[in-house]
Amino acid sequence: MDIVFVEGLQIETVIGIYDWEREIRQRVVLDLELGTDIKHAAQTEEIDNTLNYKAVCDRLIEFVQESEFLLVETMAEEIASLLMREFSVSWLTLKLAKPDAIPAAAAVGVKIERGERS
Ligand SMILES: Nc1nc2c(c(=O)[nH]1)N=C([C@H](O)[C@@H](O)CO)CN2
């Protein structure tokens, strides 16, 4: 299995459990590994034969900007479902960080793996 990856995708959104967090927009940072097979694209040089990371980023920016989740867990699960449903991704890892949530920490968040690695 090959991997198309995205690192450090920064998006501003409403997220958090506290009242003050419902009033502001905060940065989340996404790191993704998306299982795929790059051979056909490598042979044909056709973008339609691979997982287009620009299309993935555009869709995630749209989705996360419009969302208002309470927990990072929920956002991570919903992003994983979207990628599997809309981009036919069968295996992925996702790290979702809130770098500005805890001043004493560089970042907090979750890492998940979903689907079957082939
Ligand atoms: N496991 C989690 N812990 C916490 C979350 C979360 O989403 N998942 N959220 C918060 C607050 O919203 C925090 O980001 C601001 O202090 C606290 N713990």
Automatic annotation (TrEMBL):
Keywords assigned: Folate biosynthesis, Lyase
CDD domains cross-referenced by the UniProt entry: DHNA_DHNTPE
Recorded metabolic or biological pathway in which this protein acts: Cofactor biosynthesis; tetrahydrofolate biosynthesis; 2-amino-4-hydroxy-6-hydroxymethyl-7,8-dihydropteridine diphosphate from 7,8-dihydroneopterin triphosphate: step 3/4
GO molecular function: dihydroneopterin aldolase activity
Residue ranges annotated for the Dihydroneopterin aldolase/epimerase domain, each copy included: 4-114
Keyword Magnesium: no
Reactions catalysed: 7,8-dihydroneopterin = 6-hydroxymethyl-7,8-dihydropterin + glycolaldehyde
Tree of life domain: Bacteria
InterPro entries documented for this protein: Dihydroneopterin_aldolase (IPR006156), FolB_dom (IPR006157), GTP-CH-I_C/QueF (IPR043133)
Enzyme Commission (EC) number: 4.1.2.25
Purpose of the protein: Catalyzes the conversion of 7,8-dihydroneopterin to 6-hydroxymethyl-7,8-dihydropterin.
Family (UniProt): Belongs to the DHNA family.
NCBIfam families per record: folB, folB_dom
Name of the protein described by the UniProt record: 7,8-dihydroneopterin aldolase
Organism expressing this protein natively: Neptunomonas phycophila
This protein's encoding gene: folB
